[in-house]
Amino acid sequence: MSDIQITSLPEVPFATPRLSSSREHLVRAADHLWRVQDRAEKVLGHLRIVADPLGLRYRAERLHLATGTFRIIGEFWRVDDAVAALRYS
């Protein structure tokens, strides 16, 4: 019997996406997750980068405190569209 250990490669954190508007800014919460905050530092929701066969997707999410889970608002090809969904929902 051999002692072969199989390990997966470590996750590589993505760079913080750039927003075209200065109304909100992103604060890193994890390797693929950012808090979306407005100018008054109010948290509007979260932005998660999701790998897709066609490229990167930006998922707008909100934390549901009662269950401790994220609720998906939508997935978008553009980071600004995901942030706008959090802004107006």
Describe this structure in words.
- There is one protein chain.
- The chain has one helix at 79-88, and strands at 24-30, 33-38, 43-52, 55-64, 69-76.
- It has a 5-stranded antiparallel sheet, with helices on one face.
- The mean pLDDT is 89.
- The protein has 89 residues and is mainly beta.
- It is 11% helix and 46% strand.
- The protein is globular.
- It contains 1 helix and 5 strands, in the order βββββα.
Task: Kindly summarize this structure in a few lines.
The protein is mostly beta strands and 89 residues long. The chain is 11% helix and 46% strand.
Structural class: mainly beta
Strand line-up of the largest beta sheet = 1-2-3-4-5
Please, what is the average pLDDT?
A: 89
Proportion of residues in extended strands: over 45%
Helix content, binned percent: 10-25%
Radius of gyration over C-alpha positions, nearest whole angstrom: 16 Å
Largest sheet: 5 strands, antiparallel
Stretches with pLDDT under 50, minimum 5 residues: none
Helix count, DSSP H or I runs of 4 or more residues: 1
The first-to-last residue Cα distance is 57 Å
Q: What order do the helices and strands follow?
A: EEEEEH
The beta-strand count equals: 5
Sum up the overall morphology in one term: globular
